[in-house]
């Protein structure tokens, strides 16, 4: 699977140019069909009726952002079991990013003219999929990581990059008893071991895990007391991390134990 992100950015000008996702007239909200992971049946889920409200929007730029968002048709990727989080009302910064639909990210850039008149430069970026802060890890996994399991079992390589999203990859880290079962790690492991139950894979494949950390240009083995690892390019041009420790896993719980 090739998840290539293509940036489409509008240019700055004294008057913010219209973006391709803005519709000035109110229209009926579309419905999103999400295949259920267990039986692949489509579940019809109504979309939220409007963009986020004025929470975390303050001052003149906050009002500009709110006015601009009121012109958008808001239809992000969602599902029926969203985990709603309370907004920190004490945060005096403006939330300058909005996900108006399933494949666009819109960034509000506050700017000033030469005469100090303030305005918003609203820049749009297009990706394969975009998600707002309300979606569950299960939904992100369904669109981003689950298709990669097919890639791996068909002989391909797959990589998931996650920048600064510990809860997304690991799970619920906020409670006293950490729950790793809903993180992307656990869900990928669940998908892999579920696939291994198929007759053609039961005796032919074994699963091993390695964990290493890249820090300040150096690589450390997390399964071997942070031993410094060497990284080389082989004769075929592929990067190899040498001497890293491998540990065989035979269940989802084995994976969760190693993560913990």
UniProtKB/TrEMBL annotation:
- The protein's name is Kinesin motor domain-containing protein
Mind telling me which InterPro entries this protein's record contains?
Kinesin-like_fam (IPR027640), Kinesin_motor_dom (IPR001752), Kinesin_motor_dom_sf (IPR036961), P-loop_NTPase (IPR027417)
Q: Which Pfam families match?
A: Kinesin (PF00225)
Q: Which residues form a coiled coil?
A: none
**BP terms from Gene Ontology:** microtubule depolymerization; microtubule-based movement
UniProt keyword ATP-binding, yes or no: yes
Q: Which residues form the signal peptide?
A: none
Read off the PANTHER family from this record.
KINESIN-LIKE PROTEIN (PTHR47971:SF8), KINESIN-RELATED PROTEIN 6 (PTHR47971)
Q: Where is this region: Disordered?
A: 1-59
Taxonomy, superkingdom: Eukaryota
What's the family?
A: Belongs to the TRAFAC class myosin-kinesin ATPase superfamily. Kinesin family.
